[in-house]
Amino acid sequence: MAGWGAYMLVWTFFYFAIRTKPQPHFLEILITDTFIGFMITHIMRLFIRGFGLLHLSLQKQITSIILMSFVFAFLNSTGVIVVQTLFDWDPDQTKKFSFLNMVMLQSFGASLFLLIWNLIYFTYHYIQKSRQQQLDKIRLESLVKELELKTIKAHINPHFIFNALNSIRALVDENPERARTAITELSNILRSSMQAEKLEMAPLERELNIVKDYLALEYIRFEDRLKIEYDIDEDTLDQPVPPMMLQTLVENAIKHGLNKQVSGGVIKIISDFKDDHHELIVQNTGRLNDNINTEGFGITSAQNRLNLLFGKEAKFELSDVNGSMVEAKITMPVKRI
User: Of 21, 116, 105, nearest to 68 (Cα)?
Assistant: First the structure.
């Protein structure tokens, strides 16, 4: 409506502004031309949508635009010339040209106008389609990220429970009283971990408390063979970290480190700020060698979760320290509290 309304205004302006002589029935012809053009373009729109031309490839769309512009311009011009001839609004032109010639002459100008109309219409829908595809892509990436995180968390809890139950099992015959206390501690840990499942991030202090309870259970199994050290910057306790990630690294340190040490060893947890990043480190007695499975669940889950949550802003490193310690280090961007 806006396009054909503007069409009428432009032609009316030029007629009154630069005409050299009056043209009989100018307004009647213009109104007829506009009305038929409006109907033709509306039918053309229905044709485009009905045959799904907007979903074709770009090359096929361009071909469709050109062909439709000529075909519907011919139909538009035929309608206008028929009405003009019936009412005899332009007898001079009727005497000079045959009906077919008049249709072909008017079709040329109409095809240019319809070509512009189609270009605007297709361009508008092409931009809308591109925007929708971008939104759909973002929504899909977000959904995939959420599902991957849930899958990792679903794997973490059974992994954690299995290790904790092993520690309690060792106590059942030797020290039943301590076993009951350990079950209570495990209950507290499970309660915290179940709440953590609902979170994408959790404060370091909360995760550290879970790890302390877990190490208390592990101490039952290792006794004096397990030494625990903490080097925690208190300012980092409020920093958000992926739930259960610290727990997973500590489990790996015991499984791949202390379990292989006859005399036991040290588990050291470090949290500090460095270069505007939060460094979370778990060190354990042992050596990193070719026998370590770097594709194991703990390492893989840590890498995957960091990639999903932070992208390139975070990294995970596993290395030897001083030839007698293995260090798992997570570097994350600092969140300002």
Answer: 116
d(CA 224, CA 222): 6
Strand partners, 228: 267
Q: Which residue(s) pair with 325 in the sheet?
A: 285, 321
Range scoring the smallest mean pLDDT among 77-86, 121-130, 142-151: 142-151
In sequence order, the β-bridge partners of residue 267 are 228, 284
Does residue 181 sit in the same domain as residue 107? no
Counting the structural domains of the chain, the total is 2
Highest-confidence segment of 89-98, 174-183, 261-270: 261-270
Residue at token pair 């053309």: 44
> Is 145 domain-assigned?
no
Domain housing 58:
2-138
Which H helix or E strand runs over 26? Answer: helix 26-50
- pLDDT tens digit string along 83-133? 878 887 766 666 676 777 888 888 888 888 889 888 988 888 888 888 888
User: How far out from the chain centre does Cα 84 lie?
Assistant: 58
Cα 106 from Cα 1, distance rounded (Å): 21
Are 97 and 246 in a shared domain?
A: no
pTM exceeds 0.85 for this model:
no
Same domain, 178 and 317: yes
Same domain flag for 211 and 325: yes
The dihedral of CA 250, 256, 262, 266: what is its sign? negative
The DSSP symbol for 261 reads -
